C-alpha cells in the first residue's frame, strides 16, 4: 500500500475505531504497536515550518531538521478564544510532566487564529501568560500550516514521529488517557528502535512579569452595603483570587492565595480558586463566584469570611442536562453568573392534579425563521412531553382568578402507575403577566442564579428555592440544571429554549423590567436574550441570521444583524438609560445598545489596544449601585477602569491598602560570572534561604528549572523540586569543542510558594551564570547558588 498524509490518517481512524471496542490494555497497546510498525518506515513527512513565522517561549525558530529530529512532536492547533482548546490544556500539562524533552517528546502550539484580533503577536503573548502556556508556540497567522495539513477545527492534535511523519490525529476534546496511551506506546516503540534523541531545545527567552495587584482581571461586580457605601468585587483571574475593595480602591479582602490555583473551601486564607471569572452579589454579605477552571460555583460569605462550593466538584462535566445538586452536579467552565430576583405568583400548597399538554411548534418552525423546502439543517422541534402539573383548586382563589375546568384527557391507556409517576410535586411559583390585576400578597420572591456555561454552550440555572419553571418543570432547592441551549455550538434562536443553541456564552445581565436575561455570546459575536416568562431565545445585535455561521464578526455600528461585534465577553443592563453596555473584547471597545431601536454603537475605545481611555480585551463590566458609573475589567491592561456615564471620562481604579494584596510574581535576576575549562564541570549548590517568619507553603510544589546554552552542554536533570530537601546539587558538563571565548548563559530559575502571617504568595526568581570556556581555566568550578527570599 502506498502511504501519503491522508492514508496515514485514514489508517489511524481505523485504528481508533478498533480501539473503541477493546477494553484490554495489552490488546490495545498491541494494536497501536502494529499500526506504528506499518507506518514507521513510510517516506511521509509534514515538511518544515515556514521561515519567518513568529515564535514564542523559545529563543529561536524551531525546525524539524535542526531541533525536532529524533522527537515525537505533538502539534496542538488552537486559538486562544476557544473554550475547547482551553479544556485540553490540563491534559497537555500532564503530558509534559510525564514525558520531558529529554524523553523525546515535544509539544508545540500552532496558533491558528479565528478572529482578526487573535492574529496579533502581542495578544497571543498575553494569552500565553494568561493561560500559563510554557511550551513553544508558533503564530500561524495566515493559516498556512492549518491549510497544508488539512486541519478543520479547534482543537486538533497532530502527533508526528521522529522523522516528521504523521502518526496520530485527535480532533476536538478527548480523554487524557487516550493521548497518554498513544504517546506511551510511541515512546517505547521508537525508543527501542533508537530513533529518539535526548537533546535539549534552545532555552526560552526571558519574559517580563507584570508587577501589580491585578493580573488579567476577568469580571467585576458591585453592591451597596448596609451603611450606604459601595464595594466592588474583582475576579483577579490571573492570580486565582477574588479581591473585595471599596469604590475608592481600598482593599478589604484578598480571597485565596495569589499565584496558587487550587480547589479548597474554607476561610479566606485557606480558600483556593482556579481562574475565577463571573461574580454576582445576592446581598451585601453574599457573593457568588464562577470558578471557571474548577468547573464550580462558589459562595463567598463576607460576614463569616468563608467560602463554600454550592455546585460542581472540580471536574469538567460532559453532562448537558443537569438536575442534580451540590458536588453531585458536574459543570463545564462556567464563565459568568447573574443573580436574579423576580416576583412570581404564589400558589396553594395542596392543589389537585390535572393533565396539561403543551401544543407543538408549527411545522417547519425554528423560532428564528421558517424552514424553506431546501433547508434541512434542523428538523422542527418535537412537541414537548406531556407533563402532569396541579393547578390551584378554585375554592382557594379569588373569584377573578378561578381557572377554567381542565381540558379533557386524551384517550390514552394510562395505568394508575403511569399517572402517579407523571404527577409533579406541588408547584410553588408560576410566572405572571404584568398586565394582570394581582394583589401584592399573591406574589413571592423567586431567587435564582443564571450561569453562562461556556464549556457546554448553554445557559443553566441554580435554584435557591423550590420552583416551577416556565409553569411546567419542577426543580427543588439546590438544583443546578440546563434551561436553554441544546449543547451544540451555534447561533440558533428558537421559541423552545432547549432547541436553541449558543456559542460559548460568556456574559450575563438581567433586566427586571422585561424579565429578560441578556447574553454575550462570544463565539457567535452577538448579544442575545432569553425571555424568562416564555423561554424564547432571540437575537439582539450582531452575529449572523444563519445559525451555523460563527464567523460573522467585525466592528460595525448598526441595527440588529447589521451591527458587528468581535468576541464580546461582557454585558450589563443600565436601567436609567434603558440600555445595554457591552464589553466588545476583541474590538477593545465598550459599546452601547438601545433596546427599543436595537441600535448598537461604539461608546468608548478606538478599536486598538491601549491604556487609560483605551482598552485591551476588556472581559467584564458592571453598573455602579447608583447607576452613575461603569466598572470595567480591562483584562490585558491588568486593571479596573471607572467610566463616568455623565461625562464619559475614564479613570483607573487604584487599589491600595495598608495590607496591600501580594503583587504578581516579580522576576529578580542575578548574573554570576564563571570560567571553566573545556570538558570541565560546573557544580552548583542551590537551595532556599528563608528569613524568620516565612515558610514554604505546605503541599505546594517548590520548583527549580535549569536552562543550558545549547545541546553541547550536558546535565542529568533540567528541572526538579525542593519538596524533599531545600538544597540541591547540580552538575553541568561543559562542551568539548573550542568556543570563541564569548560568554554562555546558564539560567537557574525557581518558583516558590511562601507563607507569612497567614498570607501566601508566589515568588519567582532567577540566577544567570555567564560562563566563559577557556583552556587555562579550572577543570571543576564549584559555586553556591542560593535563592534568598
Bin the helical content: 10-25%
How does the major sheet shape up?
6 strands, mixed
List low-pLDDT spans: 348-436, 660-669
Structural class category: mainly beta
Number of strands: 48
* Coarse shape: globular
Mean pLDDT: 84
Number of helices: 8
Query: Within the largest sheet, what's the order of strands?
Result: 1-4-3-2-5-6
Rg, Å, rounded: 29 Å
Give the strand content. 35-45%
How far the N terminus sits from the C terminus, by CA atoms, comes to 63 Å
Domain Thioredoxin: 13-188
Pfam families: NHL, Thioredoxin_8
Region (Disordered): 366-400
Keywords: Repeat
Topology:
Blueprint: H1 5-19, H2 25-39, E1 54-56, E2 72-78, H3 83-87, H4 89-98, E3 105-111, H5 121-130, E4 137-139, H6 144-148, E5 156-160, E6 166-171, H7 176-192, E7 220-224, E8 230-236, E9 241-246, E10 251-255, E11 266-267, E12 276-281, E13 286-291, E14 296-301, E15 306-311, E16 322-325, E17 334-346, E18 354-356, E19 387-389, H8 416-422, E20 429-430, E21 443-453, E22 458-463, E23 467-469, E24 473-475, E25 479-484, E26 505-511, E27 516-521, E28 526-531, E29 537-542, E30 558-559, E31 570-574, E32 579-584, E33 589-594, E34 599-604, E35 620-623, E36 629-634, E37 639-644, E38 650-652, E39 668-676, E40 681-689, E41 695-696, E42 703-707, E43 714-715, E44 719-721, E45 727-733, E46 744-756, E47 759-773, E48 780-788
Parallel strand pairs: 2-3, 3-4, 39-47, 40-48
Antiparallel strand pairs: 1-4, 2-5, 5-6, 7-8, 8-9, 9-10, 11-15, 12-13, 13-14, 14-15, 16-25, 17-20, 17-21, 18-19, 21-22, 22-25, 23-24, 26-27, 27-28, 28-29, 30-34, 31-32, 32-33, 33-34, 35-36, 36-37, 37-38, 40-45, 41-46, 42-44, 42-46, 43-45, 46-47
